[in-house]
Amino acid sequence: MGGFLSGTLFFIVDKGKVRPTNEDFADARTNAFGQIILIVADGMGGKNKGDYAARYVGEKLAKAFQDLEKPLLKPHQATRWLYRTINRYNRDLYSKAHANEAYKSMGTTLSVALLFSDQLVTAQVGDSRIYWINKEGALEQLTKDQTYVEHLVASKKIDRYEAMTHPERHKLTNAVGVRYNISIDFINYEYNGETILVCSDGLYNNVPKYDLQSILKGKDTPERKCYQLIAFGNSNGGSDNMAAVVWERN
């Protein structure tokens, strides 16, 4: 059940039109067993090295996956590997932030899609997102935002419409590197060749859901789709850094 996957992937990061620096990170790789990892991290902390946090966790995780000596054969194995690996890099960041004032309060979101055979395992910290085009042809969000506003919606204190303009809609309740022990949300899905998008909040906040769906359902290559997503985001204001990873199975 190693499950060599044949497909095409592409990732892109863009500074946007407002922010002076980029703190988003994206990567996508295969390992020796034909398994796939898609990663987006959105750094927080600005001058306190949010860019470093996103790049550190993203690059370390991608390389660890690429260097696996054995395939991940079942969802619980993939979940256990992700949990241990993300926790290790979380503690590295946490220790660095507490040892050096220049890195104080840094952290990063992290959204990971791990694909093998007919399985998809998602790992979620923060408010970057994973979507796919489901069998009905609709854009479906697979991850749940770890934000204060999502908590308010879940507790029925506000509705989805109110959440869209809530003044604290960007307030995270979880991030990599902020605490020594981290909470990671894992979900396992059966994978049947769906097109997958992993992206930062800068992308989905600047590209309406209808346009995300339209681009992902199109016949262009993943590379072209990534460039279209960024172009749409910038044409709608480019108010934040944007990261996108697109995977399509052949």
Explain the overall architecture.
The chain has helices at 50-66, 75-99, 148-154, 160-163, 201-204, 209-217, 222-235; strands at 7-14, 24-30, 36-44, 107-108, 110-116, 119-125, 129-133, 139-141, 185-190, 196-199, 242-249. Strand 5 and strand 6 (119-125) form a beta hairpin. The strands form two sheets. Strands 2, 3, 4, 5, 6 and 9 form a six-stranded antiparallel β-sheet that branches. The protein has a five-stranded antiparallel β-sheet with strand order 1-11-10-7-8. The mean pLDDT is 93. It is of the alpha+beta class and 250 residues long. Helices cover 32% and strands 26% of the residues. It has a single domain, classed as Phosphatase 2c, domain 1, CATH 3.60.40.10.
Task: Provide key terms for this protein.
250 residues; alpha+beta; Phosphatase 2c, domain 1; six-stranded antiparallel β-sheet; 7 helices; 11 strands; globular
Brief summary of the model shown:
By secondary structure, this protein is of the alpha+beta class.
SSE pattern, N- to C-terminal:
EEEHHEEEEEHHEEHHHE
According to CATH, the homologous superfamily is PPM-type phosphatase domain
Q: Which structural category fits the helices and strands?
A: alpha+beta
Rg over alpha carbons = 17 Å
The number of distinct structural domains comes to 1
What integer is the average pLDDT? 93
> So how many helices?
7
The termini sit apart by 19 Å
CATH class: Alpha Beta
The general outline is globular
- The CATH architecture designation is 4-Layer Sandwich
Largest sheet: 6 strands, antiparallel
CATH topology category name: Phosphatase 2c, domain 1
How many β strands by DSSP?
11
Q: Can you tell me the residue ranges where pLDDT is under 50 for at least 5 consecutive residues?
A: none
